[in-house]
Amino acid sequence: MDDFDPFSEAYFDDPFSFYRRLRDEAPGLYVPRYDCFFLSRFEDVWDAVSNPAFSHGKGTTSMELLLGAPRHSTALSSMLPPGHTALRKSIADAFTPSAARRLEAPTRELVSDFLDGALATGKLDVISDLALRISARVAFLILGLPLEDADVVAGRVNDTFHRSEGVRGNTERAAEASQVLHAYLAEKIEERRARSGEPDDLIGALLHYEHEGQRLSDEQLVSNVFLLVVGGTETLPKVFSGLLYQLWKHPEQRAEVARDPRLAKDAFWEGLRYEMPTLMLGAAAEEDTEICGGTPVRRGQKLMHLWVSANRDEREFEEPDRFDIHRRAERILSFNHGRHRCLGAHIAQMEGRVLLEELLARIPDYEVIEGEAVRIRSEFFRGFSRLPIRF
Predict the structure, then answer these.
(1) With the C-alpha atoms ordered 196, 201, 207, 211, is the resulting torsion angle positive or negative?
(2) I need a labelling partner for 61 at 20 to 30 A (CA). Which of 37, 72, 254, 348 fits?
């Protein structure tokens, strides 16, 4: 596996062929140029993300861990217990199953309105016209940000992941978008602070948070809201567009969900496994430890979790490359696992289910305009950046 490089064009073209070889030949591949291990099997990733010897203090992304970009974030994702535990607990109520149920009615109304507007045109981009607009608005509802800014901010979030051929990692456009987004959030946090009052939204809860006599600094506030905006906005549209593409490729399964909307939950769960968009995130060892049942890792060495590979591991899933809405996998890694499991998992599942129910209720026999679809080419994300359908 000397040819494995997650920034190579060959990897962008077909990561799955690399993953298959990695799982079979080198499940804990060490790449000296990055001083990093790449984990490709489900069980190895599952165990590693639960290992307290690894932390996010040096970063989580390929930019930070592989290319050495400085780690600026002071958000929840980079914190260690007990601070991590305390902050996560303080905001967890905004992401519970009951919170997701409370958000379902406004989410369904938004989806219905956007679909009604598209029906007259006979065409829509599943991402920019629908799923991205929904994910941004739901995130804004939770945070307490103005809904009229949601589309512009969603565009900025998308730009923070901009890639360009021949450039490893982020581009100038991505860096500029990140700066603009941080400035916007800092302004909105100050406006929320000026209103004071009880914490009736997530920004309010962060402003009121206190642990061991310490409040969050301005930098920590912006970092955490940035994390929540990006996490709440960017991933769902990629999963949902991939799911709609697979249902179009499997019309008999699409027809089943259209006939019985109760299957939408299972279909979205399979979409999360099969169309996982985040290729990799990682951590660094805080102490000497082991991975893959005995491979030694020294303090300071890095680890990348190949999520998409793990979700297609033959050792965990029967016929993993087969899309099946009836699979109902007991474990997937699309929401991470352990102390860093995605806080928004219940919200995302509600959004995906509602989007699918409402879309299939109106346009059950949509057609993907494959010639106009645009796929992502990146070491970080896979899937579609544009997926038009006609009906």
Answers:
(1) positive
(2) 348
**Count of Cβ atoms closer than 10 Å to residue 146 Cβ:** 10
Cβ count near 386 (within 10 Å): 15
Residues 6 or more apart whose Cβ sits within 8 Å of residue 219: 74
Burial of 145 (C-beta count, 10 Å sphere; 0-12/13-18/19+): buried
At residue 39, φ and ψ (nearest 5 deg) are: -95, 130
- Give residue for tokens 């579609």: 384
The reported pLDDT for the residue numbered 72 is 67
pLDDT in tens, 167-177: 787 788 988 99
Threshold 0.90, pTM exceeds: yes
Provide, rounded to the nearest whole percent, the portion of the chain with pLDDT above 90.
88
Task: List b or e across 39-50, with b for residues whose CB sees 16 or more CB atoms inside 10 angstroms.
Answer: bbbbbbbbbbbe
Nearest to 284 by CA among 57, 98, 73: 57
The CATH code for residues 9-390 is 1.10.630.10
Closest CA to 64 of 334, 291, 284: 284
